[in-house]
Amino acid sequence: MLPYVLRRVLLFVPTLLGISFLTFALLRLAPGDPAAIALAGGSAENEVSAESLARFRAAYLLDQPLWKQYLHYLGPFDLSAEGHAWFGGSGAHPWGGLLAGDLKSELHRPQVRVADELWRRLRVTVPLSFAALVLVYLVSLPLGIAAAVRAGTPFDRASVVFVFLLYCVPTFWAGLLLQLAFGATGLGWLPVLGPPGEGASFADVLRHGVLPVVCLAYGSFAYLSRQMRAGLVEALSSDYVRTARAKGLPERLVIGKHALRNALLPVATLFASVFPALIGGAVIVETIFDLPGVGRYAYEGLQQRDYFVVMATTTLSGVMTCVGILVSDLLTAALDPRIRHG
Q1: CA-to-CA distance for 27 and 23, rounded, in angstroms?
Q2: What is the DSSP string of 137-193?
Q3: N or C terminus: which one in the chain shows less Cβ crowding within 10 Å?
Q4: Distances (CA, A) of 29 to 33, 265, 299
């Protein structure tokens, strides 16, 4: 198993490089001048002199060919005027770029390093996404199991209607409804905007996180619960389950020990898509609930045409996807010893 994991980790490198290249190319095709937006302070009404624009573009290599801009971002050599002497720079800052662990500075706030800001915002997004992931599995798996053992009953049909109604509700609309229902305009039970303040108690942090977590998680209930139901229904009709029942084993052991393990295989496989989807879904949720997380950071960077912010958040999303796929493969092998990754 260890050689397999090492090979997969090494394959992540060309995958992430491909993601960074495609993102970089697509960003350059998007309308809008990042230099004009950064210097104008985000307002199209502010006029910027041609000299200022030229200096800004030269400083960030925006006036260079696309291949040079990408290699400058990728690294490990800095290709700017202060970069590596091999490429005509002064040598003051020879190393930089993604391969050197340098995510650059924001275009509109040059004093802010993207890596520092990303780390600060991860402390908001990761707990929310992890809590949503736990909630998804805690609700979906028991619901799918209950529907499978009661297949064809009114409970099964009602669960189908319930989860697919949830699935059809758009995230932005669900967030607004939750704010209206539980915020100051409704029941007034929970805060609906902004993160908890500095020094907030654990209970206050939980209260601020309830609505965003629910909003992140509810859309995956239908997806996972129906997969759980389908897998368990198929497993319950298998020969080994009929054999276990013929031996006189209690139904609880037949389901829990024999059928459930194989029924969990499709759900474990879906972890590869559910985990990154929660990170990606944070864009809408964090914007609605005014949370300074990675999703909102990506949205703001896209609005301001800040290439370095969008590149960093997209690369992070690619890393999360690769990690989700790897964890999914390892869970599948652990659930079914017959699966061996060669």
Answers
A1: 6
A2: HHHHHHHHHHHHHTTTSHHHHHHHHHHHHHHHS-HHHHHHHHHHHHSTTTT--S--S
A3: C
A4: 11, 41, 17
- Mean per-residue pLDDT for 270-279? 69
Number of domains the chain is built from? 2
* pTM of the entire predicted model: 0.77
Residue 77: phi, psi to the nearest 5?
Answer: -95, 140
> Helices in the chain by DSSP H: which ranges?
2-29, 34-39, 50-59, 66-74, 114-149, 154-168, 171-182, 202-217, 219-236, 239-246, 251-253, 260-288, 294-303, 307-335
251 and 162 inside one domain: yes
Q: Looking at the structure, tell me whether residues 30 and 174 fall in a common domain.
A: no
Whether the per-residue pLDDT at 342 is higher than 60: the answer is: no
Q: pLDDT tens digits, residue range 126-144?
A: 888 888 888 888 888 888 8
Q: What is the DSSP letter of 255?
A: I
